[in-house]
Amino acid sequence: MTDVTPGKAAPEPALFLIHVLTASGAPIALVALLAGAQGKWAEMFAWLGLAFLVDGIDGPLARKYNIAERLPRWSGASLDFVIDYATYVFLPAFALSWSLMLSQPWNWICGGLVVFTGALYFADNGMKTPDGSFKGFPAGWNMVVFGLMVLSPSQAFTIAIVILCCALTFAPIRFVHPVRVRRWRIVTLPVTLGWMGLAAYAIINDMSLGGSLAVIFTVSSIYLFSVSAVQQLLDRVD
Fold first, then answer.
1. What gap in Å lies between CA 148 and CA 157, rounded to an integer?
2. Residue 151 phi/psi, 5° resolution?
3. Measuring CA to CA, how many Å separate 125 from each of 11, 84, 106, 147?
4. Is residue 121 over pLDDT 80?
5. I need a labelling partner for 161 at 20 to 30 A (CA). Which of 94, 115, 188, 229 fits?
6. Read out DSSP for 157-191?
7. C-alpha closest to that of 176 among 116, 118, 111, 226
């Protein structure tokens, strides 16, 4: 690989590798879909976890090397949106619809709501706030559906969570980005890493957590879901 240093002109092929990294999420999504179609949900979410990792790497690289200006022909943002919609919205909606989490017609209704509201959210130019948070539920259905599948709540609870998240997509409520939001990051980042560690264990354990691990997973999920809303409320009180 050609060595690239910030601030210096770099050969296009070297910079284009960042787009190649982003685009690798597409075949990863396809393999995840094939696993899900066979009911191999742990395998599917393992692939989605890899896609999540790629998504966490390509953005910082693109910003570091100012790829938007140095390769103006290719839109990294558009490419990222395509991949993110597939891995954050469409595939989790498929899992919600195709698995036995919900009976008919609720599986189709909830799955349809997820892909519909997710599509609208990805078209929202105001989804980011100045502090790095997301405005409205950020279509993080990969985490929500994964959590519901691992914890196996009642159908009524699952339907309620899906409808709530769909409604919050358009609400003026902030949701945390665990890296970009500096406020309480000293807590948020370890909680995020802990959540990811428990998620990996659940995947290895055939999509299940028991006892205290399930409690910790639930508490960390609630924290990540609500921390920015709590901060927003405290700001209004002050």
1. 9
2. -85, -20
3. 32, 15, 31, 28
4. yes
5. 188
6. HHHHHHHHHHHHTTSS-EE--TTT--TTHHHHHHH
7. 226
